[in-house]
Amino acid sequence: MQYYSSLVSQSCFHVISPLVMALPIFVFSLVVLVTLCKLVRHVLCPKDKRLPPGSMGWPYLGETLKLYTENPNSFFSNRLKRYGDIVKTHILGCPCVMISSPEAAKLVLVSKANLFKPTYPPSKEKMIGPEALFFHQGDYHSNLKKLVQASFLPSVLRGAVSQIENIVLDFLPSWENNNINTLHEMKKYAFGVAMISVFGDKAESEKEGIKQLYQCLEKGYNSMPLNFPGTPFSKAMKARKLLNETLTRLIAKRRKENNLEGGLLGVLLKSNDRNNRYKLSDAQISDNVIGVIFAAHDTTASVLTWVLKYLHDNQDLLDSVTKEQEGIRKRLKSEANRGLTWEDTRNMPLTTRVIQETLRTASILSFTFREAVQDVEFEGYLIPKGWKVLPLFRSIHHCAEFFPQPDKFDPSRFEVPPRPNTFMPFGNGVHSCPGSELAKLEMLVFLHHLTTTYRWEVDGDEDGIQYVPFPVPKHGFPISVYPRK
Ligand code: HEM
Q1: What integer is the mean pLDDT of 303-332?
Q2: DSSP result, 329-393
């Protein structure tokens, strides 16, 4: 037997060895051939006159190198200045159309949303979980969306105000007379709030494991998708698998104990309708739990980091916000030192406008991606099937026609509601953010305690923006915090 197998392996070796030597030449020729074909197609193919104006850049590479070497914001704005509101380009291996008029964005995201499906790189889908609602359209998406929205309605959130406040009161004193990294701290806070929203506040042994595995997953999320042992991507994929196992255990335990209350998980566990049509599988529940944690925490943390920067840079505004929050604090003290309520948070107009102006100025989600599911005639242009469409939120938020002096941080502009479809920090249409009220609530609760108790100075003098992947102040805005006099 041993002889037989060694013979097989030897003979195989003899056959394979010339093949192995020829393989690199074969692969090289194939690459050259494919590139040449693409080049010929790119140069010779008649260009469809109905395509939007713009440059497709180099064959194959498109304008990707320019996107990476220029600042992403100037990449988009330069092209819009040159070609108009609807511009074609070729980035990250895909032909794309960038759109920056409110009407066109509404068409893609709302009125003709069925012609444009959401699209993400396969590696991101694998990491978050392919059953998460972001990746779907149609019935599955709309049923799930209803469930997720139901977990974040104001009527549900009002019960979470004191839990959120407790998280703030737990960590904020540790900032006193310390140097902290704002982004890191805000991430911890937003993660804590996301965990409560998803699982409820009951102690469960699985939660610590979920927290650690999620952190491991997060480290690999923005890495190159190279699944070799030891790469951050491969570690993240392992963590994702373990996360699934832990969540499956938690789901089984909750089902066994008939413990179907608590957070989004509770809502998803109870999701079966009378005919059992919408019964979600464990994998669907897990993917959506991870998806919501993912959507909820980096976004909110990045916006909060900007709020601290803008308040620091506008001390008069900080004084006015503090005055508004002092008024609320006095009322809480006079009413048996009670904690914040939902109604208190509805009574913070200036702080709310500061958050709105931060969402506009920072526009942390500069754009989103959709893909045309068929050829689409669009404002006189053709968007071919399979092309990506990028509604550019940031460009709309920074258009002087809708927001005069767009680079000025001026919350008073929100004293008048913005024109319809010009302010979309939480997106628009079927895929708009179901967590917008939660995000605003956790920012208001945090700002109440921060502004009435502390002041902060920036450590170092480096200004600028960093993309992690959302734009945030350089190095995560390191600050020294001291008690307010
Ligand atoms: C300030 C913080 C946040 C910002 C700026 C933000 C922004 C957005 C935007 C722009 C979209 C739409 C993306 C698209 O159309 O492709 C979105 C979707 C989503 N957001 Fe948020 N978000 C924030 C916080 C949250 C929170 C706290 C949650 C937790 C519930 C959340 C959960 C989601 C989910 C699940 C979706 C996908 C909805 C769907 O596909 O139907 N987000 N978010």
Answers
A1: 98
A2: HHHHHHTTT----HHHHTT-HHHHHHHHHHHHHH-SS----EEESS-EEETTEEE-TT-EEEE-H
